[in-house]
Design a protein that fits this description.
heterodimer; A: Spore Coat Polysaccharide Biosynthesis Protein SpsA, Chain A; ten-stranded mixed sheet; B: 470 residues; Hypothetical Protein Tm1070, Chain: A; eight-stranded antiparallel sheet; 3 helices; 51% strand; Glycosyltransf_2 (chain A)
């Protein structure tokens, strides 16, 4: 068996000496050694010439396939052993390969490839390709060689590094494919050989150490200008191989096209837009050069004839691409879940390091202080089952109990709710989608006022299976308190560590979480149906947690904090718009103070950039509303979600209470004094001062806003202060939380003085708030929420109004002495999301005049005009003013209609209103802005995502 | 202290600057607290959103007024209009939905117009509509009945549904479309439940007559409320007495006031053979009614005049003949009713074996009017309330001489003024709450028509759009 070793090199001066030494040390030396260089510098050539002699070294102007073809002409041995300049063969490699060639009837043999630096990790043992074009080795990444794959087996292809191939096979197949100079050359060759009937086996006993230079991008070739473009070339090569060698071309074209699009989406989700672009470019390149593929296929058909061998058993199984997809999704999820874990690990490591440094000179010995925190507990019990860990952790039990109690106390939300500031939910999701997608709303007399910002997330949530508008409202009210508590727990742990410099005490953080979680309920927001404040209360701790990312040292994390803050702030602004104003002032303050205190680092773009992004996100993410409200009263931006409700006074802000349906106010005062006294604690002073500055900012903003009157068409209103109330309560809780850390440790050793009783008193004081609050809430207090009451409008009129928006019911209320009020009910009445639109709508003065004429002197032309206004019926609920009723009775063109009960009067206009009576055109910019908004939301969601570890 | 590491904010908690006792941080914190308290102090108090403002209605002069006259033996209707408007106006009388026949009338005047004996509708339009009033007479002033305007609720106390005393209710609908009225009846035994909510339909332009003895037979006096649930209906009651051994008579029963706690019954004659007070208490609680007599000089409670207990939902018939026998001192007086619960009533006098029904009237100040019959001895009685008196002015419309009368009336007194010849209608005006009426006495019998407040304006309710909050 004669063997020629063919060494193809390209700028491999780094590894060449070792390769040459390896060749020399072969136990079975090759009969001849040839080297072809494809364009290296003089040192490589010099090395080769020195080692092999000048006539064994040739140069070639092309790439690897051209080099092989050129050398093939001068080879006359039976076998050719191809080596790369970064493939160092083990001394027994060639011997094993030749022995296997003799005993097995194979035409191509490949060695076991092991990683060069480590020498023990497996790289390849034969390679195949999956249906999506991914190179499959069948090995785990970084798998150590423990002899687990040591059987000689048939494979589709082997790597060209260390390949032993018959010369006649090479000649028959015309060497390697010239269209694949760098990547997938081996797979294509092996595939072609298999279809032509040649057998390829892998011989694990022969070992070659491969540095994988071309693959890892360490080699600078003419093809690769930059390292990062390996992905594109790889992908292009894989696509070409599949299309050139695959069986059913049309099916493969379609499948590869859509498969590439899915991969593009995956890369975008993983925040690797470069790779996504690479995929698209590769796809485009291959598909726009169909002649290459056709030529390649024809060449192959010439080789293997009409009946090629079926190579399907050698290809990767069909489920491999799906498993990779599943791995990708699991990866993303794990990365998201591991986020907090990483931050906690970092913090704990730093804290332990600081403790070790401090314990050298301090007598408290924090290093020995190993509290059984949740991190440690989880670490210690990492091997036990989760149930054991759950039951033995008092924290977990308490939190579950509290969550269950919260769900029980909020059980009213299990049935449809309405009342207070909460209008009843519409019948179906399509009502909400209509409001969101169309610029013209069939409400009142038809209006183009913008829909509220929270309708888009509500609509999306409500479109999920098993969800409906009532379910969305119920979920919001049920889960607000648990979600607020969870968020408060998460942010409490971080803030406690940052602010007090000590490890977060689970009891104190638990107290903070329990106190804050209750704020939506005890403040009366829950009972009054202020769903905007309730939603903001649940989201505020998550926003605070994201905002803490602004103080991270890493710029990447700061930017990510900016995106996350932007998204959460937009969501909160949709519910309570004052949040954006507050954030604006806070950011301006932070930047000003930062420039003053820190100077130059604050001016860097990565310092203030994320803040600016977080500020700019809400107007963009709430686009149609942002622009739409400009055409109406711009100060109406600051109205809270839901029906107009009262604003709290100064005492209400301090104690965290809206006026009615709230827990007793004195409970709220129990937080204020401890928060003031928290200034006295030295270690946590900065954090407490920051909290109080935030409170002061909120109070000042509340003072300014409470003086502003918003002139709505229907009357005057005041901006909603609910968000400021939440901020004040959250900041008070945070101040107490941060300052209370370490009190026990400090006081333990000291002798009895005024400090201990004071600490006891303060502890008792701060415990009052959560205990009394929970007791009050669990006792089931009165609230304004109840099942939506049937209106005064009879059921058959409801059906008519639902059938067409142009047919409405005019509802008159009041009496002659104190004035009558009217409104027009359309569709399913005024439901959630309609109130804000109606509040911004100018009343129709023509209709007002006509209604005034109708109730005092209904002339026939007035009656006739009503159908043009889109009104079919008149309803007067009890108590009915007899004069108005008599006037309407006497009018011609109006006939009596039956009402639900005797005390309600109803009339019907003889002329029915047309179904399009209130049709109109929305603003032209609604559609484009909506598209822009959706795109911005998608982009920011992707940007918020956690980073996956790069796989390549 | 340990060296302060630079870098991330994670270390700021351990830095040095928080160490001093009153360092800049403490000052900053105290300033923040003070700013907070200051801002809270300056904040506007809690505010309700958009309180709806109540708005008083506007008033414009009436342009159309309808009055419904009950059927009568006579063929005339006395119509007057106390309008101060200038401009075009017309008055017409129509029967049963037919076209109205015009009547010659000018503002501030009264006339006796020809009309059929059937129920008629008097319609005033334009400048004559404000202050329109009308009545009918039967016999030479023996029986007098007013022509009421359609109203939502009318009370009749002292109707009967027995064989001896039978009342007939006449409901007139002046509009084109149908109207629906309900009756509620109370008897001496309590509310008559089974005839509540009858839903009586009166066709457009038509009159429906209902015999109470068919509807709700009861041996004793009843009180009745007519409420209109749809359209407009004017109600009148014809009372028929068929006392055995005497000639059957028929008179109109004038509507009493809405139940109130202070009412007056004007027009008591000097002598009467019988006086019967019928009181109705339609409410849920029983009460007590105190009676006082308003005489020429003062209001007094005669000895022996006991307060009357009125149980809830019942009609109480009290014979006051003996109690008032000597107490009236031969004066024309009025009866003042003060009750603990809202009541209404009628006083039935039998004078010269003729029945005179005197309704309870709510005192009111301002302009009032009534008509006077052609023949008979006619006197005007004015009774002021106990609190206030004042200068009163009376105009006798159509009088040949002495058409004006002015006088200063003391509070709590009854004043009697002779009605001069030729008077068709009487217009009174006074600053204090008062009641009164025109009593007619003739050979055939006596009758009394109370002074009624006139309607000049139409109330235009203020209409405003509302935010739906339900």
């Amino acid at each position: 068996m004669t063997v020629t070793a063919l060494l193809v090199s390209h700028e491999g001066a780094r590894w060449l000496p070792a390769v040459l030494a390896g060749l020399r040390d072969q136990q079975l030396p090759p009969d001849r050694i040839l080297a072809v260089d494809t364009g290296s510098g003089p040192d490589t050539l010099g090395l080769l010439t020195d080692a092999l002699g000048p006539d064994a070294v040739a140069t070639c102007d092309g790439h690897f396939p051209d080099a092989v073809r050129q050398a093939l002409a001068t080879i006359d041995t039976e076998w050719v052993w191809i080596l790369h300049d970064d493939a160092n063969p083990d001394p027994g490699a060639l011997r094993e390969l030749v022995a296997a060639a003799a005993s097995h009837d194979a035409d191509i043999l490949g060695p076991k490839l092991r990683e060069w630096p480590s020498l023990r990790r497996l790289l390849e043992l034969g390679v195949t390709i999956s249906a999506t074009g991914r190179r499959e080795t069948g090995l785990e990444r970084g798998e150590y060689d423990q002899g687990q794959h040591d059987d000689i087996r048939e494979v589709l292809a082997v790597n060209t590094a260390g390949m032993l191939v018959r010369r006649e096979v090479l000649e028959r197949l015309d060497g390697f494919e010239p269209e694949l100079p760098l990547f997938a050359t081996d797979i294509d060759f092996g595939w072609r050989a298999a279809r032509a009937g040649h057998k390829t086996i892998v011989v694990p006993q022969a070992v070659v150490f491969h540095a994988e230079a071309g693959h890892r991008g360490l080699r600078r070739t003419r093809l690769m200008g930059r390292r990062t473009r390996t992905h594109r070339a790889e992908r292009e090569a894989a696509l070409f191989v599949l299309l050139a060698n695959g069986r059913r071309l049309p099916w493969m074209l379609v499948r590869l096209f859509f498969g590439s699009l899915v991969r593009v989406l995956g890369f975008l989700l993983a925040r690797q837009p470069g790779h996504a672009a690479d995929e698209l470019v590769a796809l485009g390149h291959v598909y726009t050069h169909p002649l290459r593929v056709r030529r390649a296929r024809r060449a192959r058909r010439d080789v293997h004839g009409a009946e090629p061998v079926d190579v399907r058993p050698l290809l990767a199984p069909w489920w491999v691409p799906y498993r990779h997809g599943l791995d990708f999704v699991v990866d993303l999820g794990t990365a998201a879940a591991m986020e907090g874990r990483d931050a906690a690990e970092r913090r704990r490591a730093q804290r332990l390091a600081a403790a070790a440094a401090a314990s050298a000179g301090s007598h408290t010995g924090l290093a020995e202080h190993h509290p059984a925190g949740p991190d440690d507990a989880e670490e210690l019990a990492a091997d036990s089952g989760w149930l054991v860990r759950f039951v033995t952790s008092p924290l977990a039990v308490v939190s579950v109990v509290l969550v269950l109690l919260a769900l029980y106390a909020a059980r009213q939300a299990l049935h449809p709710l309405a009342g207070g500031a909460l209008s009843p939910a519409p019948d179906s999701t399509s009502n909400w989608w209509d409001l969101v997608l169309h610029g013209w709303h069939h409400l009142g007399q038809g209006t183009d006022a913008p829909d509220p910002g929270y309708l888009l997330p509500f609509s999306i949530l409500s479109s999920l299976p098993f969800f409906s508008p009532n379910v969305v409202v119920g979920v919001l009210f049920l889960l607000a308190v648990p979600v607020a508590g969870w968020g408060a727990w998460r942010v409490g742990k971080v803030v406690a560590e940052l602010g007090s410099g000590r490890e977060a005490s689970p009891m104190l953080v638990g107290w903070a979480a329990a106190t804050y979680a209750l704020v939506p309920a005890v403040s009366g927001a829950w009972g009054q149906g202020r769903f905007g404040v309730v939603a903001s209360a649940a989201l505020l701790p998550w926003l605070a947690h994201a905002a803490l990312g602004f103080v991270e040292p890493s710029s990447d994390r700061r930017w990510r904090a900016g995106w996350r803050c932007g998204l959460l702030l937009s969501l909160i602004t949709a519910f309570t718009p004052v949040a954006w104003l507050y954030f604006l002032l806070a950011v301006l303050g932070v930047v000003a103070v930062g420039i003053r205190l820190v100077g130059a680092p604050m001016r860097e773009r990565s310092a203030w950039g994320p803040l600016a992004v977080a500020l700019a996100a809400p107007p963009v993410l709430l686009l149609p509303g942002t622009l739409g409200v400009l055409g109406h009263d711009i100060s109406a931006i600051f109205l809270e979600a839901g029906r107009l409700a009262s604003t709290p006074g100064p005492l209400g802000l301090l104690t965290g209470r809206f006026d009615d349906y709230a827990a007793p106010a004195w409970i709220g005062l129990t937080l204020v004094v401890p928060a003031v006294l928290a200034l006295a604690r030295r270690r946590s002073r900065i954090a407490v001062v920051i909290c109080w500055v935030l409170i002061a900012l909120a109070a000042v903003l509340a003072m300014l806003l409470s003086r502003i009157t918003i002139n709505l068409p229907a009357g005057d209103a005041r901006p909603g202060l609910g968000f400021l109330l939440l901020v004040i309560q959250g900041a008070l809780v945070t101040a107490v939380l941060v300052a209370a850390h370490g009190v026990r440790a400090e006081l333990r050793g000291q002798r009895l003085s005024w400090r201990q009783p004071l600490a006891l008193v303060l502890t008792a004081t701060i415990l009052v708030a959560p205990i009394a609050g929970w007791a009050w809430w669990l006792a089931g207090p009165d609230d304004q929420l109840d099942r939506p009451a049937a209106g005064d409008v009879p059921a058959y009129m409801d059906q008519v109004t639902r059938s067409a928006p142009g047919r409405g019911v005019l509802v008159l209320d009041g009496d002659v002495e104190s004035g009558l009020t009217w409104f027009v009910q359309r569709g399913d009445g005024t439901t959630l999301g309609d109130d804000e639109i109606l509040a911004l709508t100018e009343p129709d003065t023509a209709l007002d005049r006509d209604v005034a004429a109708l109730v005092s002197q209904p002339e026939p032309d007035v009656v006739g005009r009503m159908s043009g206004h889109g009104i079919d019926y008149i309803v007067m609920p009890a108590p009915v003013d007899p004069q108005v009723a008599a006037t309407l009775d006497a009018a011609s063109g109006i006939t009596q209609a039956s009402a639900a009960d005797r005390d309600t009067r109803a009339w019907q206009f003889d002329e029915a209103a047309p179904a399009d009576a209130i049709d109109g055109d929305g603003p032209w910019w609604h559609g484009p802005l909506l598209t822009l908004q959706v795109l911005a939301i998608l982009v920011i969601i992707v940007l918020c995502g956690p980073t996956r570890r790069e796989l390549r | 202290m340990s060296a302060t590491p630079t870098g991330s904010g994670r270390r700021i908690a351990e830095s040095d600057t928080g160490g001093r006792r009153f360092g800049p941080l403490v000052v900053a914190g105290l300033v923040a607290i003070l700013v907070t308290m200051g801002a809270l102090a300056l904040q506007a108090p809690a505010a309700e959103q958009i309180p709806p403002p109540p708005e008083a209605p506007a008033r414009t002069p009436l342009t159309v007024a309808d009055l419904a006259c009950p059927s009568a033996d006579s063929s005339s209707v006395t119509i007057g209009s106390d309008s101060q408007q200038d401009g075009e106006g017309s008055v017409g009388v129509s029967t049963g939905g037919s076209d109205p026949e015009p009547v010659e009338l000018s503002a501030g005047e009264a006339t006796r117009a020809r009309a059929s004996g059937d129920p008629v509708v008097v319609r005033g339009e334009g400048a004559l509509a404000p202050g329109l009033f009308a009545s009918r007479y039967a016999g030479a002033g023996r029986a007098a009945g007013e022509c009421p305007a359609p109203t939502g609720s009318t009370w009749f106390v002292g109707v009967g549904s027995s064989g001896v005393h039978d009342s007939r209710l006449q409901l007139t609908n002046p509009d084109a479309g149908p109207a629906v009225a309900d009756l509620s009846l109370w008897s001496t035994d309590g509310p008559m439940e089974e005839v509540r909510s009858r839903g009586l339909t009166v066709p457009g332009g038509d009159t429906t007559t209902i015999d109470l003895s068919d509807l709700a037979p009861h041996p004793r006096e009843l009180a009745m409320q007519v409420t209109v649930s749809r359209g407009r209906v004017a109600a009148s009651v014809l009372d028929g007495y068929a006392i055995p051994g005497q000639k059957p008579t028929e008179d109109w029963l004038t509507a009493s006031a809405e139940p109130a706690t202070k009412l007056a019954v004007p027009g008591l004659s000097k002598e009467a053979d019988e006086r019967t007070l019928v009181l109705a208490n339609p409410g849920d609680t029983g009460g007590r009614v105190k009676l006082r007599v308003t005489g020429k000089q003062s209001t007094f409670a005669p000895a022996g005049l006991e307060p009357i207990e009125v149980p809830a939902g019942q009609v109480v018939v009290t014979d006051l003949t003996d109690q008032l026998a000597g107490a009236l001192n031969g004066e024309d007086t009025a009866l003042e009713l003060t009750s603990t619960v809202p009541v209404t009533g009628t006083l039935r006098d039998v004078v010269d074996s003729d029945l005179v029904q005197l309704p309870a009237v709510a005192p009111a100040s301002g302009r009032t009017a009534t008509t006077a019959p052609e023949k008979g001895e006619r006197t005007l009685m004015l009774t002021t309330g106990a609190e206030k008196g004042g200068a009163f002015e009376v105009t006798f419309v159509g009088a040949t001489k002495g058409g004006d009368w002015r006088g200063r009336l003391k509070p709590g007194t009854t004043t009697v003024v002779e009605v001069p010849d030729g008077t068709i209608a009487v217009l009174a005006d006074g600053p204090a709450p008062y009641v009164g009426g025109v009593r007619t006495r003739s050979g055939d019998g006596s009758s009394f028509l109370p002074l009624r407040t006139l309607t000049y304006d139409r109330i235009l309710p203020k209409v405003a759009p509302a935010l739906p909050d339900e």
